[in-house]
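Worked example 2:
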Amino acid sequence: MEKYRVEIKRSAVKELKKIPKKDLKVIIEKIGLLSQYPRPKESKKLSDDERYRLCNGKYRFLYYVEDAVVIIFVVKIPQRKDIYKQ
């Protein structure tokens, strides 16, 4: 199986900088695993166009997969309590 390239959007990088180091380490590991398993069993598909959500404790990260070019874009990493605020 070909490995996927993982890209983190600038908006997600900003949110990563706000996360405490102990939580950040686990999130980075999970993001890294997406390069081998882009659709893990614990991920939830959000729509028809390959968008997914993966939870880690009090954080969720949203991403989408493009199979044609083998890329995963991590879009957002909000705290679960903030996910529904607008």
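The chain has one domain: 5-81. The first helix runs from residue 10 to 18.
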